[in-house]
Amino acid sequence: MTDNTYDVIVIGGGAVGEVLAERVVKRGLSAAIVEDALLGGECSYWACMPSKALLRSGEALRAAKTVKGAAEAVTGSLDVQAVLERRNSFTSGWDDSGQVKWAEGAGITVVRGRARIDGPRRVVVRQSDGAGEQVLEARHAVAACVGSAARIPPVPGLREAGPWTSREATSAKEAPRRLAILGAGPVGCEMAQAWSDLGSEVTLIEMRDRLLSALEPFVGKYVAKSLTEAGVTVRTGTTVQSVTKEGDGPIHIATNLGEVVADVVLCACGREPQTQDLGLETIGLEPGSWLDVDDSLRVNGVEGGWLYSAGDANHRALFTHQGKYQARIAGDAIAARARGEHAAPVAWSPFAATADHQALPAVVFTDPEVAIVGLTEQRAREQGMTVKVAEYEIGNVAGASLRADGYTGHAKIVVDQERLVIVGFTAIGPGVGEILQAATVAIVGEVPLDRLWHAVPAYPTMNEVWLRLLETYGL
């Protein structure tokens, strides 16, 4: 190794890039990680951690109010400044010095600057301090872990209005008086919950006929009801036609169902890859495109097979936990191939991100919480499966009724009738994220229902919903 040559060069120092770099170092390779912003990336500073910190205080307050005895002790409301200060603590005040110390302690070289690929295994870094460019060479692999950015739809006047994206929504220093949110996916619904809790008048605008439209239909109904009861104005079937803002005045949002006036507009309209300036054209790929990868996360169409991509940029699963899973797979594959070993990405091997296809777990941290893994009923049928579903009201489970007076929630399993295994699980209700791993294990392990019947849930816990679902199914 020379000063500018490493076994692996990782472009992008978010959580995914950090995991991949650490993985290859642990397997005996050298690694450099190139980052032009904060090491730790989106998840640490503008997504998972600050957003969940914003949501937690309101959730805790409501939870106390749902238990008689505790409810009588609640005499005040949220301290907004304290909530924001707690959020700041999880981002270390947007200071990444702790992350840099960790990386260097793990044996990873941190290079500050904006990286672009310049031909096979060659990376040019425009240094952050303006000192010029540095050329890095990779012996074995380059990994593009550059993530994604918020998509701003081409609505007339929207960009000119200076919209928030998820970054501004999770790092704002005060609550806007009137907040309009465009898009009711997980980000839109979570931010509607958070900023409503913190005192904003929130209008949630969704062009489809329900919230969280990619999930089971009952989920959107529950979340819409909860947000409405919390004071959020929920507008579905609403198309934004134009946005107008003059000077320091309010923002006027014209829709097919009338005008919405706000002080801040948040775009939660999906994501796009951050590959526009990555230098893909130097290796025959399309700039700005999602990176198509095989199950070992090696980018297809690159001669020599030296380019990998884990995380959002490959568009397989836009979740931090799934990107870190991919990073572990890619790291193992890179290390094995560097040793001259065969690393075929066959299903369920150490070199295949199999879970990307069948077992994506996720939690939407609204109140009530949403927990999902695997396929919805509709997607299972679209894949040609013959399925049977079972549903159960979680509030009828003893553990749930103990958790909150008047607990309301719902759970559903989707069963492949040919193999008699669960292929999908969805639940909504306070705390359901804590029972999600059982569903994930059942799906990943393809546990037969007659075997799952013997996984006895402890009483009285919310896990008893598993027994009730199996009984409803017919076991």
Automatic annotation (TrEMBL):
Disulfide bonds join 43-48. Residues 6-314 form the FAD/NAD(P)-binding domain. FAD binds at residues 52, 312. The keyword Acetylation does not apply. GO terms for molecular function: dihydrolipoyl dehydrogenase (NADH) activity; flavin adenine dinucleotide binding. Its EC number is 1.8.1.4. Keywords: FAD, Flavoprotein, NAD, Nucleotide-binding, Oxidoreductase. InterPro entries: Class-I_Pyr_Nuc-Dis_Oxidored (IPR050151), FAD/NAD-bd_sf (IPR036188), FAD/NAD-binding_dom (IPR023753), FAD/NAD-linked_Rdtase_dimer_sf (IPR016156), Pyr_nuc-diS_OxRdtase (IPR001100), Pyr_nucl-diS_OxRdtase_dimer (IPR004099). Binds 1 FAD per subunit. GO terms for biological process: 2-oxoglutarate metabolic process. Its cofactor is FAD. Belongs to the class-I pyridine nucleotide-disulfide oxidoreductase family. This is Dihydrolipoamide dehydrogenase.
